[in-house]
Amino acid sequence: MKDGKKIVATIEARMTSTRLPGKVLLPMAGEPNLKRLIDRLRRSKYIDEVVIATTVNVPDDAIVALAEEVGCKVWRGSEDNVLLRVLEAAQSVGADLIVEITGDCPLIDWRHIDRLIALYIEGGYDYMSNILERTFPRGFDVQIFSVKTLAEVNRLTGDPVDQENVSLYIYNHPERYKLGNWAAEGKMRRPELRVTLDTTEDYTLLNAIFEKLLPQNPDFSAEDVVHLLNVEPSLAALNAEVKQKDPYGGYV
Predict the structure, then answer these.
(1) Total domains in the fold of the chain
(2) Is residue 249, in this structure, part of any structural domain at all?
(3) Which residue range is the domain that position 156 belongs to?
(4) What are phi and psi of 107, to 5 degrees?
(5) At what angle do helices 33-41 and 61-70 cross, to 10 degrees?
(6) Cα gap 10→54, rounded to integer Å
(7) Each residue's pLDDT tens digit, 116-126
(8) Does 158 reside within a domain?
């Protein structure tokens, strides 16, 4: 809670990802990926609740079971209209602000989230993120906007690309919405690094990061991750050739 607003982190998660099916439940140092992510989000000083936004498909029953096990709310909605799924998930718990997180970013740092929430509120933004300009490693991605804004977007667009990518319409319309971006500085400015989970190479890297950092500090930071990749460049090389899918179906 900040400035009287209920702040909810939504996690988009499904079992049928195209490049790495079942990735959200793969073990990271012995615990499911999704549980690791939830644990890290719950450290935030401002997030009031975490809700998983999954689909009505039978394979995603496994996600619901995990949510029940860890005491996390879950919302089941459309597989393809992710925008509506996230909106309904946030509305189901009475959210004012949405911290949009995807299930392939288990290394997300609550300190970054809290910084972005503060920037969003203090600056009077409609949208705040650290991805409008890619300066952080891919995998620390955070996007913040209000339920009111996302509900408006849901009314304004029926484009399947917008529906699949949730906030795409917002940042594609800077004339309509006040956009903010937090850029990485110093040693964190490593946009070429990849710590998101889409392929087997990504999994090998992320699991290794958890196994190396968790014993030292269960609340390890994004800075700790980047430092590890700096001192052990062979780790960063594990997924250096992986291409990222863009919102329009291509790879970058």
Answers:
(1) 1
(2) no
(3) 7-239
(4) -90, 5
(5) 40
(6) 10
(7) 999 999 999 99
(8) yes
